[in-house]
Amino acid sequence: MSTKNNIHVLSRGVIIDQDHILLCKTLDLPISFYFLPGGHVEHGESVETSLLRELIEETGAHCKIKRFLGCIEYSFEPGHSSICHNHEYNFIFEAESESLKSNHKIPQLEKHIELIWVPLHQLSEIDFRAEPLRELVPQWLKTRASDVFRSVMI
């Protein structure tokens, strides 16, 4: 079965420092765009564990999850920018790390992405995907922390 026909589950992190958000920028696609750090949840792995693993892989930093922000179901037309799928669920968490600061460049640990600090007010001006997150992330960050997410993994 082609992986383009599967539904993918991803965990993503919103890391904020000095009114900047940490984003990944694609380096290996015909079109460059930005997205939240994180990635695919592996079988038997919780979305929180997945996010912490992905953040270490992408940034080299140990992070802490502060709170669940929201979940977005997203689909898009397959094309050059969709290598493996076009239907996904993204679990979005606010995260933090004492070693990730907006005034320090983050070393490139993966050849297909570059990590960049972007001013929060510029989210609507860049090619930030999934597109609804341009409005949702700032809205979610303004809400008070709530206890709406539970993971019960065996």
From TrEMBL:
Keyword line: Hydrolase
Signal sequence interval, chain numbering: none
PROSITE patterns the record matches: NUDIX
Record GO terms (molecular function): hydrolase activity
Stretches assigned to the Nudix hydrolase domain: 6-142
Known cofactor(s): Mg(2+)
Protein's UniProt name: NADH pyrophosphatase
Lineage: Bacteria, Pseudomonadati, Pseudomonadota, Gammaproteobacteria, Legionellales
